[in-house]
Design a protein that fits this description.
Layout: H1 3-21, H2 26-32, H3 39-46, H4 54-63, H5 76-94, H6 98-107, H7 114-117, H8 125-144
Helix pairs in contact: 2-3, 5-8
Length: 147
């Protein structure tokens, strides 16, 4: 996992902990989880400045009836941000090729190919260009030879 992904995860977990804490003060929440963190540490975790330890997450999940996996599940907002990040990365990679830009705009409307956008985060700009060119070649082939 990259440093950026670690930060996103820390912020997501922090927001979920803040949501669980609700109207409790940090001190009351720390007391509820058997003082395994300090209020200051809880503040840093909630703000995403520090990743919560597995021990802290386990204790919170036990006390507030949440499965441990819940902390790691993305919410709709996070998925939308990640999708937009991927789309921008693709656009940056193909910005100097008007034909690829035009093709990508059409391609990005297809729900069956949206999953592909999530896969570009680890690709170089040149690899992204190659991938879009390959998809365009396949699409052109299918248009010429419909089944």
């Amino acid at each position: 996992m990259s440093k950026c992904e670690d930060q996103v995860l820390a912020k997501r977990i922090g927001a979920k902990i803040r949501g669980i804490r609700g109207n409790l003060s940090r001190e009351e929440f720390v007391e509820a989880i058997d003082r395994i963190v300090t209020p200051q540490s809880l503040y840093r975790v909630e703000k995403g400045l520090r990743k919560a330890s597995d021990k802290v997450l386990q204790k919170i999940s036990e006390k507030f009836n949440k499965p441990l996996s819940w902390f790691y599940e993305p919410d709709c907002e996070t998925e939308a941000i990640q999708a937009e990040f991927s789309r921008l990365k693709i656009l940056e990679a193909i910005q100097n090729d008007p034909s690829l830009l035009e093709f990508f705009e059409k391609l990005s409307q297809r729900s069956d190919l949206k999953i592909m956008f999530k896969q570009v985060k680890d690709l170089s700009p040149e690899s992204i260009k190659r991938l879009i060119r390959i998809i365009r070649a396949i699409e052109d082939e299918e248009d010429e030879n419909p089944t």
